[in-house]
Amino acid sequence: MNFFALFGFEEAFDIDLSRLSNTYKSLAQVTHPDKFSQASDSEKLMAVQKSAQVNDGYQVLKHPLSRAEHLLSIRGIQLSHETKTLQDPAFLMQQMEWREQLEDVEHAADQEAALETLDKELQQHSQAQYIELQSLLEVNSDESDIQAADQIRKLKFMEKLHHEIELKEDALFDE
Amino acid sequence: MAYSEKVIDHYENPRNVGGFDKNDPTIATGMVGAPACGDVMKLQLKVGDNGVIQDAKFKTYGCGSAIASSSLVTEWVKGKTLDEAVTIKNTDIAEELALPPVKIHCSILAEDAIKAAVDDYKAKHTDN
Hints:
The complex is a heterodimer of chains A (175) and B (128).
Chain A: H1 3-6, H2 17-31, H3 41-62, H4 64-74, H5 89-104, H6 111-139, H7 142-174
Helix pairs in contact in A: 2-3, 3-4, 4-6, 4-7, 5-7, 6-7
Chain B: H1 5-12, E1 27-34, E2 39-47, E3 53-61, H2 64-77, H3 82-85, H4 90-97, H5 104-124
Antiparallel strand pairs in B: 1-2, 2-3
């Protein structure tokens, strides 16, 4: 399934998110299973499938990381369900350090401020990585796509770390 | 998802958590990560003159299965030579911990951590 085609987009990383959201709303409306209450069973089934595709496609295209992954899969590079490990000592050491810093937040005098500082640092790194990812995807060659795949793998670690920070923030607010 | 008793045991009482000085020539350091889940694992081996692993430590940020896999591996490699250690297969780890198919990548991470550590040791010792 090519979700770019489903939503009427060119196959590109940089997409207009408000147009995506509008297209989603109108597609979701026309494919909504409620509209097919009087239709035959096979038409109902098709509507359910179409509606599921529209929802999946929206989720995939909305998030930059899954959108990039989808773009690469259309170009023939599958990243999902991959079990290969990443072995980039410098990158992983940095990841380790950030996770240690996140652990140490508990001992900080101002936990909220410590979390915010860490999150800001991460966001800066992620942003730079996303800019590089975008330019690699724009090149659209075999070589740049392989590099883009590596960039996506690294961003997944950033994403996970960001998620952990959010969990910590939630825990702080609950106290 | 239910974890096996062995995973829970290693998760609740992880063996050999910690680290050594990575610049020490007798220390081998393996760093690996699993992009699918964002888990990060550091495995360090203390190697004697005879090439036998005297001690092992790990630090893992990840799920219970990833922590259990690395904890188990630190127990298994002690007393083995580096060449013996690299023969440990992810399937052995997965079987010992009764990991479900969706958690097999955790055992792959542990196997690759051993290999990365041994590679690091060899790289440190090829110059002389």
